[in-house]
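So, read this over?
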Amino acid sequence: MLDIAAVILVLAAGAAWLNRKLFRLPPTIGVMAIALVASLGIVGLEMVGVTTPGKQERALLTSIDFTDVLMNGMLSVLLFAGALHVDLARLWRLARPIGILALVGTALSTLLIGLGCHGLFRLLGLELPWIHCLLFGALISPTDPVAVLGILESAHVPQDVESTIAGESLINDGVGVVLFALLLETLRMGHSPTPGEAMNLFIHEAVGGIALGLCIGWLVNRILASIDDYRVEVLITLATVVGGYALANRLHTSGPLAMVVVGLLVGGEGREWSMSDATRERLDLFWHLLDEILNSVLFVLIGLEFAVIHYNPGLTRAAVGAVILSLVARFLVVGIP
């Protein structure tokens, strides 16, 4: 585990330095692009017979459990950090467009991508059940909130537009997780759930996650207001994110939705009465740095995955087609409202 962490952190730091020095792209995009180019370079060298990193290095990458690293490690921190800097008052004022994009848009995107991929794969001679295509749609439909926020910081768009996009990108992560859970439960049961079963699962995941987030956010704000020591308060927020996400998993509610709600409450009006100016400044700096570091690590991992994928021409065509379908579906669901 230590070897994996050391290699990934060194690569992330190197890619971040190279991006800052030469390309000056948004950090997450630049880091992933560099890692992706490096992976493609390794694959290209192998195709012409040049020796590349051996089995031990590849085994190191393949030993990483992406589900565990992302869902049980990084996601809670990334969502909380993203929600922490969203203006809650403006978000509430823009609730209608955000709700349409995050709820209806994500569900419609899941359906369009699922239908499109099922048809595309059949044309390419690949038989994939409907439910698997819809699972892919639910997985790929939510936009990455941190990448979106990073791009918005350098785009200088109007505040309302920025808040709408940022709010939608945060909330649709939770919606995507709930949709994925519903579809996965359908796959496990072997048949479509009844409306009552689907509603029960939705309430447990979505409503339960929001309710848990409200309770944790309310409690944490009062704990933070009871002291004035930025070191302890930063530690409390970190413990809240990790512990709250673990609690949500134990209760089988949506951890992503819970952490978004906690971030909005701690970072909204709550910070005005629960923290001193010094604490607010240091808290923001800590979470911004942690956000950047974890994003660099995550996007390096994504880029390096290309070095360990076993290429198949048919699957490659299907993957390219699925990417195009996903982009078209997102364009349509954003343009329709």
